[in-house]
């Protein structure tokens, strides 16, 4: 029987059977003998949480058929989250499928990327989220302190590299205004992407 991940520790009855060997290897349970159908498997009260690397990676993207992805949507090109700025579809040939030509802009670096995918094939599409935070402080080394919904602070983001946005944030903060920044997140990366001026303090 192949190894299996469990969210609880399995207890096999009867446990005194000499044919049964249970060993732990890398947080997995291995059954080293065939279990008769009459045996039952119960769960102990002790919980162990195992995280699958495949599941963790898959949660950052989802599959979508190439032919259904449109301009202003999102796509992963060369392992980078991109916004689609141009898409064109070639006609179906005698011996192949129609192909989609995507031109995307990396949502974090602004770099232009391209890819060609058969229209019937699936592409990876990133989960892109935007969250607003109130700006509390700007440190000398370029990090910002943001107020979260729970009343805590988020201190792991730097000021944006876009010169116009950077200038607006610095000038507004220097003037003592209440500023709200929008943070875009995708595929494990985050970046300030917009600013909202909600007036003087």
Automatic annotation (TrEMBL):
CDD domains cross-referenced by the UniProt entry: S1_eIF5A
Pfam families hit by this protein: eIF-5a, IF5A-like_N
Molecular-function GO terms, alphabetical: ribosome binding; RNA binding; translation elongation factor activity; translation initiation factor activity
Keyword line: Hypusine, Initiation factor, Protein biosynthesis
Boundaries of every Translation initiation factor 5A C-terminal domain copy: 127-196
GO biological process: positive regulation of translational elongation; positive regulation of translational termination
InterPro entries: IF5A-like, IF5A-like_N, IF5A_C, NA-bd_OB-fold, Rib_uL2_dom2, Trans_elong_IF5A_hypusine_site, Translation_prot_SH3-like_sf
Family as reported in the entry's similarity comment: Belongs to the eIF-5A family.
Name used for this protein in its record: Translation initiation factor 5A C-terminal domain-containing protein
Species for this entry: Phaseolus coccineus
Organism lineage string: Eukaryota, Viridiplantae, Streptophyta, Embryophyta, Tracheophyta
